[in-house]
């Protein structure tokens, strides 16, 4: 597994993503829904940091991830979430991909709120996140969840 140093803004982006995806309130969670049962990936491209959080089913003694179990973020270097994309949601990357209405330069608003922000990474700077989180972590000491 490759790794390297993390700068302060990237660490903050990871903390923002984890706090958003795993709120600190609510009933106790099943093993697979805890922060420990996930793998984290981050890459910085200029003033944006891209974060992926993917389930690691082996942590809880499972073989397969749950459906729609991950999330990807675009976060500014000052810690602002620019875009959150849960697994299973449509991607809105560029005008040709459906992020804009046909014949218009105005972004589409899916939820009635603010329009989608273009968080497309330039082709020369693209980094792929793993599609699935597999293996690597031992199951918890408590046995089955």
Keyword list:
145 residues; mainly beta; Nuclear Transport Factor 2, Chain: A; 4-stranded antiparallel β-sheet; 1 helix; 4 strands; 10% helix
Structural class: mainly beta
Roughly how many Å is the radius of gyration?
17 Å
In the predicted model, the low-confidence regions spanning at least 5 consecutive residues are 94-104, 107-113, 132-140
Straight-line distance between termini: 27 Å
Main sheet: strands, sense, barrel:
4 strands, antiparallel
In what order do the strands lie side by side in the largest sheet? 1-2-3-4
CATH topology annotation of one domain = Nuclear Transport Factor 2, Chain: A
Q: Overall pLDDT, averaged?
A: 74
CATH class of one domain: Alpha Beta
Work out the strand percent.
15-25%
Output the helix-strand order. HEEEE
How many strand segments?
4
> What best-fitting shape do the alpha-carbon axes yield?
globular
Can you give the helix content as a percent range? under 10%
Note the total helix count.
Answer: 1
What is the annotated CATH architecture of one domain? Roll
């Amino acid at each position: 597994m490759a790794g390297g140093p993390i700068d302060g803004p990237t660490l903050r982006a990871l903390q923002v993503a984890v706090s958003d995806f795993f709120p600190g309130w609510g009933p106790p969670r099943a093993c697979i829904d805890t922060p420990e049962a996930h793998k984290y990936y981050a890459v910085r491209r200029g003033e944006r940091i891209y974060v992926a959080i993917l389930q690691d089913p082996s942590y809880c003694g499972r073989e397969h991830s749950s459906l729609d179990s991950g999330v990807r973020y675009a976060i500014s270097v000052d810690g602002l979430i620019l875009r959150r994309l849960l697994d299973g949601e449509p991607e809105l990357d560029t005008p040709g991909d459906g992020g804009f209405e046909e014949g218009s330069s105005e972004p589409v608003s899916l939820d009635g709120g603010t329009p989608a922000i273009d968080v497309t990474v330039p082709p020369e700077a693209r980094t792929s996140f793993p599609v699935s989180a597999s293996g690597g972590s031992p199951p918890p000491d408590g046995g089955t969840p």
